[in-house]
């Protein structure tokens, strides 16, 4: 079974852990505890294939930024999360993306831009169009999600798996060619 | 009635009194009263007047005579002839007195004298015919003869002339020359009268002799003609003379004109010259202004580029050791910096003098920079060595404070700032030297500090382990590879561990280490920011910030200054968005962090190694290190500082170790194998108590509870699964007992822990425990009155087949005799004996620790009573009235159970 190393990044309090736990355990964690680092494993079926997702839920607070380089080096796909209720979390992603591209040394990194907390429509400050245009600029997928209302949560990870598959298809073991009879 | 005489009289009077003064001549007058005004019947005079030639203006005029001042006539109104619309004579009869004149309104007159009226109308008509252009006034009801004929006056005059004397003839003939004149009565003027009188006196004879008079007159006429001719001829000469004069005048005028032309020419030249002079003046003024400006600019340049001699000296030979020398050097250096960055027009930079001065500056700068560099370089190294030579305090766990170094260096702060701006290479070099010398010290300090700390860990370990070694030395050596506290392994196989008191000590040690590090790092960081001016970003690519460089590197210069302006904090703070400021902050932080990383390069590995040193003595270390370190990381104010981030990185390591430890615990549960001589309580259930209490002791008040609770859930779930599996494999004890006892143990433990996240599992443990208890009772208590039970099962079958309960006793197999026979097999004594055996068996199954025997025994008693009640009820139903009873009652049962329980 193929393993997919997925890293969830974003500023503090945007709901990285809530999204991850909702995806992995189907629970919504109401309480906010700043994450240090948590890793989860979950087996899912995407497009008829069994995949083992290894999801690294990272710290969003600033002290931990030194770890990011390492995360980026090890990750295959990245979920960039911001909260639609906080402009600064949206602004921070630009640098994050640049850092990923720098570390990976390529422009084509499987990535999903996620605007979380879309159930809090009244508190919205980042418009959906803004998110879309940033995703356009990043040339990556975009979705608005709600870990609480369970909107689009699974799609983030499925989309990422597909992106990883598309970028680097699994090297299938070539079946040994049957020796053909040759008529002399 | 007035006569013509009075008429002539009034005409004369009016002419004389009224019109002579204005130069007008009265042509005709009519005395009238106004018929349209009844009251005013006074006579007034309507006159036709003409002004003197050559442009006679004829007007119609109304004159009044005032009664009070009798002699005075006054002009009342006058009209132009063309104002007259029409004139109505009323009747063509001569005797008609009235006539109307339409002017601005209709005037109706009554003429006192008919002749006057006739004459007036005729004259008026003629004047109108003569002078009015355009539509002329119409004469109605006036005899046609008056309008064409000559005036009656003239007729009268003619008549008079023909009838009068000869003397009036020339007057008459004069009159005839001009019809108009003739009509008029002209009085002789005084002069004429005199002349005439003179003439008559000279020729008084003429009266007598007319012919002689004529002759004399013609002779005089002839003379007069001659004189006239002569005067004409004489005047010709005069004309000629005048012509001559005119010609002369013309030539004079020509001369004058040429002269004027000359003057004009001259003036033209003057004007041109004046213009040229004006232009020159303007040029001179511009030149002057330019000179002034140039002067000003030069003054500015000179004053900007002038470096006082004292400063020059200070730069040439700075004395950096004394405070005064430093002060002078700093002042001079700042002056030089200012001069080198003076705001001078790029064009002026090409001046050789400026460039020369620049070169001089450059030389001074170079020299001064070198001196400063060498001096500070030596100072850094010296300070580094000085401290390096100091002996270390090896006993106390304190990180030495190097504020004395900072104190030594603070006076040179401004020199450092100067070299940052002026000589980037020197600045960078000095920074490197500083980092190198100080990092040596910090390296040594930190290593020493952590060694000491590690030593304290192992010291404590040794102390606490000694007694442990004594008691368990024989067994321990073989199995010490299994970490202490592993859930899935029996406690006696664990390696050496520490007790909670040790953990508290370790925790305190860690806290002390962290608390020691913080102020030292913070102090160094603050000093570096200030000393190296790291809170101000300046371009790093260019060596020197000056404005005096020549154009050759202007392109670079431009981009440089652009960079500088975008990067300098002042310009960024004026930016609207907060992002640039944030970026700058980040860049500053990045640089500070890099420097700190150089200074404290060994801190992170040492810290990690120190933390790992716990691992060797206490497998639970990750729990409290996680909690302790989290406190420091999450509460940090400067979340971006070097220390915060170092701690955070260590924290991530610890968190991973924590997760790994938990994962191992989980695995050990899953892989746990039952030891042969195992107790009823499974090892992980037993160990979990200690584990959970330790964990709770550490996490009770921590922010990281969530991390622990996540693992609690997984561990407890694994334990439940393990109980189910291992209960089957247990060698001696029945699986129900294993389940019952272990679930009971878990239940009471969870109830004790009161972890909110485990409430659901606590309930589950209780359910599982109850299920196991029930299953055990069912299985092992069984049916002590088995045959009775079988008997009634048969009864129930029959009932199910349709036999009435009351008719069961008639069945052969279920007759009362049969029932009595079965009952007699269970005498009270036998029953009690059976129960006693059962009790012994149960006692053997259960373990002492859980103390569930009474519970089980009670449950069995309940079960037995339930079975007894069932049988009794069946008997009453099916064999009612047969007086059949079991050989013991409920009281007996209760007595049996309590007796048995008491006797053991």
Automatic annotation (TrEMBL), chain A:
It is an enzyme of class 3 (hydrolase). It catalyses: GTP + H2O = GDP + phosphate + H(+). The keyword Nuclease does not apply. Pfam families: Ras (PF00071). The keyword Zinc-finger does not apply. GO terms for molecular function: G protein activity; GTP binding; protein kinase binding. GO terms for cellular component: cell leading edge; cytosol; endomembrane system; membrane; nucleus. It is found in: Endomembrane system. It is a lipid-anchor. InterPro entries: P-loop_NTPase, Rap1, Small_GTP-bd, Small_GTPase, Small_GTPase_Ras-type. SMART domains: RAB (SM00175), RAN (SM00176), RAS (SM00173), RHO (SM00174). Its EC number is 3.6.5.2. One of its GO terms (biological process) is ommatidial rotation. Its main location: membrane. Gene3D superfamilies: P-loop containing nucleotide triphosphate hydrolases. Keywords: GTP-binding, Hydrolase, Lipoprotein, Methylation, Nucleotide-binding. This is small monomeric GTPase. The lineage of its organism: Eukaryota, Metazoa, Ecdysozoa, Arthropoda, Hexapoda.
TrEMBL record, chain B:
GO terms for cellular component: exocyst; plasma membrane. The keyword DNA repair does not apply. Residues 173-183 have a biased composition (Acidic residues). Residues 150-184, 559-579 are annotated as: Disordered. GO terms for biological process: exocytosis; Golgi to plasma membrane transport. CDD domains: PH-EXOC1 (cd14683). Residues 564-576 have a biased composition (Low complexity). InterPro entries: Sec3-PIP2_bind, Sec3_C, Sec3_CC. Residues 207-304 form a coiled coil. Keywords: Coiled coil, Exocytosis, Transport. Residues 39-131 form the Exocyst complex component Sec3 PIP2-binding N-terminal domain. Residues 150-162 have a biased composition (Basic and acidic residues). GO terms for molecular function: phosphatidylinositol-4,5-bisphosphate binding. It comes from the Eukaryota. Belongs to the SEC3 family. This is Exocyst complex component Sec3 PIP2-binding N-terminal domain-containing protein. It comes from Drosophila navojoa.
């Amino acid at each position: 079974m193929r393993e997919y190393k997925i890293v969830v990044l974003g500023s503090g309090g945007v709901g990285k852990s809530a999204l991850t736990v909702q995806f992995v355990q189907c629970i919504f964690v109401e309480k906010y505890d700043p994450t240090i680092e948590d890793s989860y494993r979950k087996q899912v079926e995407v497009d008829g294939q069994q995949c083992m997702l290894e999801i690294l839920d990272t710290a969003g607070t600033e002290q931990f930024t030194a770890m990011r380089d390492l995360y980026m080096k090890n990750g295959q796909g990245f979920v960039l999360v911001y909260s639609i209720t906080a402009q600064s979390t949206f602004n921070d992603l630009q640098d994050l993306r640049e850092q990923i591209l720098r570390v990976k040394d390529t422009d084509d990194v499987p990535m999903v831009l996620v605007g979380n907390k879309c159930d809090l429509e009244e508190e919205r400050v980042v418009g959906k169009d803004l998110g879309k245009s940033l995703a356009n600029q990043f040339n990556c997928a975009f979705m608005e999600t709600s870990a609480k209302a369970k909107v689009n949560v699974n799609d983030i990870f499925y989309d990422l798996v597909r992106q990883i598959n598309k970028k680097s298809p699994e090297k299938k073991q070539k079946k040994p060619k049957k020796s053909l009879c040759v008529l002399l | 009635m007035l006569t013509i005489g009075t008429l002539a009289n009034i005409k004369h009077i009016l002419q004389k009194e009224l019109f002579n003064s204005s130069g007008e001549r009265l042509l005709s007058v009519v005395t009238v009263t106004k018929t349209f005004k009844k009251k005013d019947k006074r006579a007034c005079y309507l006159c036709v007047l003409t002004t003197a030639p050559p442009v006679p203006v004829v007007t119609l005029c109304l004159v009044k005579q005032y009664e009070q001042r009798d002699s005075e006539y006054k002009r009342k109104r006058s009209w132009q002839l063309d104002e007259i619309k029409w004139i109505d004579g009323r009747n063509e009869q001569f005797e008609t007195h009235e006539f109307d004149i339409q002017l601005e309104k209709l005037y109706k007159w009554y003429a006192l004298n008919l002749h006057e009226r006739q004459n007036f109308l005729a004259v008026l008509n003629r004047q109108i015919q003569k002078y009015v252009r355009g539509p002329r006034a119409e004469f109605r009801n006036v005899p046609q003869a008056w309008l064409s004929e000559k005036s009656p006056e003239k007729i009268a005059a003619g008549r008079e002339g023909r009838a009068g004397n000869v003397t009036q003839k020339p007057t008459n003939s004069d009159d005839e020359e001009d019809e108009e004149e003739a009509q008029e009565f002209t009085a002789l003027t005084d002069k004429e009268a005199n002349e005439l009188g003179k003439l008559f006196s000279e020729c008084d004879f003429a009266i007598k002799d007319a012919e002689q008079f004529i002759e004399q007159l013609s002779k005089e006429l002839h003379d007069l003609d001659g004189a006239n001719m002569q005067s004409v001829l004489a005047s010709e000469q005069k004309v000629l003379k005048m012509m001559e004069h005119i010609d002369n005048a013309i030539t004079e005028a020509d001369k004058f004109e040429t002269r004027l032309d000359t003057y004009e020419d001259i003036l033209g030249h003057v004007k041109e010259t004046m213009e040229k002079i004006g232009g020159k003046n303007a040029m001179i003024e511009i030149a002057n202004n330019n000179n002034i400006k140039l002067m000003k600019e030069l003054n500015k340049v000179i004053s900007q580029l002038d470096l006082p001699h004292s400063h020059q000296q200070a730069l040439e030979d700075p004395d950096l050791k004394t405070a005064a020398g430093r002060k002078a050097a700093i002042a001079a250096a700042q002056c030089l910096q200012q001069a080198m960055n003076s705001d001078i027009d790029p064009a002026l930079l090409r001046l050789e003098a400026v460039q020369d001065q620049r070169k001089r500056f450059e030389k001074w700068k170079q020299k001064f920079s070198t001196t400063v560099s060498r001096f500070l370089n030596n100072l850094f190294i010296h300070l580094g060595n000085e401290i390096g030579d100091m002996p270390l305090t090896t006993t106390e766990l304190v990180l030495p404070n190097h504020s004395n170094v900072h104190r030594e260096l603070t006076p040179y702060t401004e020199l450092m700032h100067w070299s940052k701006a002026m000589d980037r290479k020197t600045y960078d070099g000095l920074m490197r030297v500083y980092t190198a010398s100080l990092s040596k010290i910090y390296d040594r300090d930190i290593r020493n500090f952590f060694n000491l700390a590690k030593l304290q860990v192992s010291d404590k370990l040794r102390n606490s382990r000694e007694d442990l070694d004594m008691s368990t030395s024989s067994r321990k050596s073989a199995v010490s590879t299994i970490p202490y506290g592993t859930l899935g392994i029996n406690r006696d196989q664990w390696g050496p561990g520490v007790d909670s008191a040790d953990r508290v000590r370790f925790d305190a040690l860690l806290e002390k280490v962290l608390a020691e590090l913080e102020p030292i790092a913070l102090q160094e960081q603050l000093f570096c920011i200030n000393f190296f001016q790291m809170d101000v970003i300046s371009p790093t690519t260019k060596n020197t910030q000056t404005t005096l460089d020549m154009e050759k590197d202007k392109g670079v210069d431009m981009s440089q200054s652009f960079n500088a302006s975008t990067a300098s904090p002042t310009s960024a703070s004026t930016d609207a968005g907060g992002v640039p400021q944030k970026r700058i902050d980040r860049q500053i932080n990045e640089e500070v962090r890099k420097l700190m990383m150089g200074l404290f390069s060994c801190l992170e590995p040492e810290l990690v190694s120190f933390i790992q040193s716990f691992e060797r003595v206490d497998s639970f270390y990750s729990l409290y290190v996680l909690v302790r370190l989290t406190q420091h990381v999450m509460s940090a104010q400067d979340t971006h500082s070097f220390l915060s981030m170092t701690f955070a990185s260590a924290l991530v390591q610890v968190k991973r170790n924590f997760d790994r430890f938990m994962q191992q615990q989980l695995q050990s549960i899953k892989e746990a194998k039952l030891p042969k001589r195992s107790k009823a309580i499974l090892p992980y259930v037993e160990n979990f108590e200690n584990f959970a209490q330790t964990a709770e002791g550490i996490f009770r008040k921590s922010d990281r509870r969530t991390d622990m609770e996540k693992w609690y859930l997984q561990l407890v779930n694994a334990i439940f699964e393990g109980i189910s599996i291992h209960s089957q494999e247990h060698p001696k004890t029945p699986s129900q007992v294993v389940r019952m006892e272990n679930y009971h143990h878990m239940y009471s433990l969870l109830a004790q822990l009161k972890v909110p996240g485990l409430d659901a599992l606590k309930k589950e443990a209780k359910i599982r425990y109850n299920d196991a208890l029930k299953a055990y009772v069912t299985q092992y208590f069984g049916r002590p009155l088995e045959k009775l039970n079988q008997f009634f099962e048969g009864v129930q079958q029959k009932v199910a087949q349709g036999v009435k309960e009351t008719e069961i006793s008639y069945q052969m197999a279920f007759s009362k005799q049969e029932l009595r026979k079965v009952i007699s097999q269970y005498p009270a004594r036998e029953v009690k004996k059976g129960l006693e055996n059962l009790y012994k068996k149960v006692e053997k199954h259960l373990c002492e620790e859980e103390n569930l025997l009474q519970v089980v025994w009670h449950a069995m008693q309940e079960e037995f009573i339930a079975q007894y009640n069932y049988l009794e009820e069946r008997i009453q139903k099916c064999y009612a009235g047969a007086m059949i009873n079991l050989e013991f009652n409920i009281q007996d049962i209760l007595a049996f159970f309590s007796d048995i329980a008491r006797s053991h």
